[in-house]
């Protein structure tokens, strides 16, 4: 599979992307209709004041009639109020709808991510995926909030003005529009240049950021090698590049708006000159001319605004392309067709007396991560229900891969894995995974409470079984010392807990879920001797009545296992009990001596 | 340069705020001409914009009475002429003032960066990179808005207000008062809404970062979540946070909607009043139609400055707050002994370290020909008052040309000890000596020029491999010379005629540098792999050198330390990711030039230290055992235990 997030098929055209984006509005027909109605009505209302002005000038001022003037003023006030209310309605309806759509987008993208293969996460750093969920979606919201509706609004206004101008006096309108081609040229020039300028500025900002990050992160190296002055000079050069790119942007803006202004004035002058002649000839009223002038002045602003907003639309389309690319990426490991109802999660009976336990067997399994060499080579072994098996081996021997394959984070290359006699590729994923409880070396705690960390949000785990699990693993004393007990807050990554405490909580998690098979991935490394004792006891509680596969670096933690498998460079080299393996004097025996050197002067752990 | 410190710092009282603003003045002073031109342009722009309605007024009035085609054409031409002049002035005003603000921005950022590079290392331990970056980029942006666009806005508002109101008054005082009726309301509304919107916006941002951190948490624990089958619960949690984000956005949007509506309405009321009352007066003959049209036009022009006043105060408040955040960093004192600014601190290299130009590449840099003597005297060190000592009573001496090795468990103090020598950490006075001179007495620039330091985790930069190896400046005046732009070039730059900003271009290395780089790479055993690369030493590295393997990165860092052939070499567990055989070759190579340098090496792998003149076994910051390899093995203590375990591990790896 080609890497990452680009769509595999030919890229969709901008229109297709836009269409697909708009399809997200489908759940909100009323809001869309309401918003459009408000925009249209507001655009129409924008045209009222000049018209009322015309009436005032023509029918009152020019005619010298005072009666009725108050009525027109009242009408003006009403339009004004209506315009203000419509403005509010338009803003809130459209923006809120946009926010709803963004909400749908975010949740959809996030949910989709949780369905993608683990291999996908190996290829895509978390930071990049986060950009999709956060900033890319934000850029999209620009499209719905300021982009589309503002452009609609401007277009309506434009159309209305054109209509009125033409109906007032089409020849005069032609005179006013004579400069439109000029506006088109200026706008095109501006759009082309400003887009390039934005791109340049973004690139320079990225370089500045990279340089800052590099120099702050590598400050020790910079200072050690006396690079301060040189790096300052280089940074200054980047800074100058950034400044100059911005200055170019300033230039385009500085030219664009005055240029549009000048063109608008030319149009005004043309109206005055030609329209004035008409008035002199009696073909036009003075009020008509005044109204015409007022409308014409409103004609050019929307054109300038639209051209600026199109840039935002362009950025949104680019973001949409990235997001859709992600949404179109499909998982390769899919759920097998569900055969019958999934088993209800078993919980609430954490104490002993368990009987159900699962058997596992690996048959000639080989596996390689994405093109690199085999991590497992023709590995076969069997774990009987309720058996406790330890897997040992040096770093890179393939131990963790065994667990990754068993949970079907990846599919085997060759061979097969059976759980209770069924090939795991034929078992629906939720059913397969509902048999396992996993305890990791790096305990991952989430922000939330102790309880929410144990249930991980699952509703199936009862309050009672949380308390019982906490007690069973010996975490009771420290948890009840916390304010709120299991309701106590946990900071991000559990920063306030010691390694041992976190470890105990992860055992409690495994116990509360009450699964058939316990998978321990280096679960007991890196703790002090006292904690280790507590953990050993907790472990016994958790393993009771369960099939257990424990991967261990520290051999002491698995010496009591029913059977120990020794992996070496991807192959299964030895198997047996601790005693048998020591006697054999092979790899395991060497590892053992290495860790528990009989040399009397040696202190463990130093 | 950094902003002068003569003014008050910190705090919130008006005087202190004035004080912090005054510290911007030195930057602005250089652009006073630009600001003068800009101000002039604002006056011209505003005046001309105000004249246009006057022309319309006369034209329309004349149309009502008597007019010739020529006169009409004259008015039309006058309009266009005014617009042209006004356009030029408008162009100048944006270009010059915003341009100046961009220049000031770059200068402040250069100084900010320069200041950062001179701060003591300890400062960075307590700071998040993201925070410092935000100050250099986002805060500076707010400051720039304050000294750029808002200067224009302020001047424009002032001029338009004065002139427009003066002109309106000359037409009709009563109507003018009516036109100005919405002014206080508008300005207050803009200020009030501006503040409230800003506050809610920050709530929205805070919730967005909550969403972001949940996303991060969820995506980085994806294996665990999946193993327990709790994807749905996580999505629900995410949806909750996102829903709260939506809710906060909703309150922001409602506020904005109310704000826009208020603006539309109150600006419209002014227009209505002028229109209504004005037309009445025209009918009564108190006002000409032309005057009436001009009044309406002026009234419309007041709208923008009315809004601007409110926005201006918000921009300035934000700008000041940001500038204060930048001053916090500027006010941190630089590392001791940095010959930073005017260069007055740069002491002479002790005369006896200098050499007659000769054999070694470092000769040009004034490095001595022999290794320097190092001595640690009863060194006790802790990271701060009240913290436990990391090193306790450490004393030893390394004679010129000797290799002294430090061995011990993680956390035994090896790395700390090595960091004290180049004063990356500040040792207590009278504890660390180079050639009999207390390192605290030596200017940093000179001290560090003597030392080639290879850290545990090498930090490579996104430039070419050659640029990373020939990293240190070769010239006498390296460290922190006064003017950024006068810094001496690196050898690579000298010989290639400048450097490439993106780090991807090609260098044409001159023979001298190529030789030095090659020699260093040969000792670091980097050369065979480099020569196999299509672009050799000109291969561009990615950020942090991530396109190299760990071992390659370490060997590049070693070559970097060796390239100037320094009299002191410090290896801080620098070969941990290099395989044993290559390591042996590197050590062999290093022994070749051993006499000319003194080497201090910390290692977790004992093969690295076997041949050392002296091995120190550190245990919790104390020297527990000392001697040669043979002596320590014979002693049968901790070192011997460590050694036997390693022999075993090697045999296991081999099997």
Overall description:
The complex is a heterodimer of chains A (606) and B (655). Chain A is of the alpha/beta class. Chain A is 60% helix and 10% strand. Among the domains of chain A are: 7-169 and 308-330, ABC transporter type 1, transmembrane domain (ABC transporter transmembrane region fold, Up-down Bundle), CATH 1.20.1560; 360-595, P-loop containing nucleotide triphosphate hydrolases (Rossmann fold, 3-Layer(aba) Sandwich), CATH 3.40.50. Chain A has helices at residues 14-22, 29-46, 48-61, 69-113, 118-123, 126-168, 170-177, 180-217, 219-224, 228-281, 286-297, 300-327, 399-406, 429-433, 450-455, 463-472, 476-480, 499-513, 529-543, 578-584, 587-595, and strands at residues 360-368, 374-383, 388-392, 414-419, 422-423, 436-439, 448-449, 489-490, 517-521, 547-551, 563-568, 571-576. In chain A, the strands form 3 sheets. Chain A has a 6-stranded mixed β-sheet with strand order 6-9-10-3-11-12, with helices on both faces. Chain A has a 4-stranded antiparallel β-sheet with strand order 2-1-4-5, covered by helices on one side. In chain A, helix 3 packs antiparallel against helix 4 (69-113), helix 4 runs antiparallel to helix 6 and helix 6 (126-168) crosses helix 7 (170-177). By secondary structure, chain B is an alpha/beta fold. Chain B has a 6-stranded mixed β-sheet, sandwiched between helices. In chain B, strands 2-1-4-5 form a 4-stranded antiparallel β-sheet, with helices on one face.
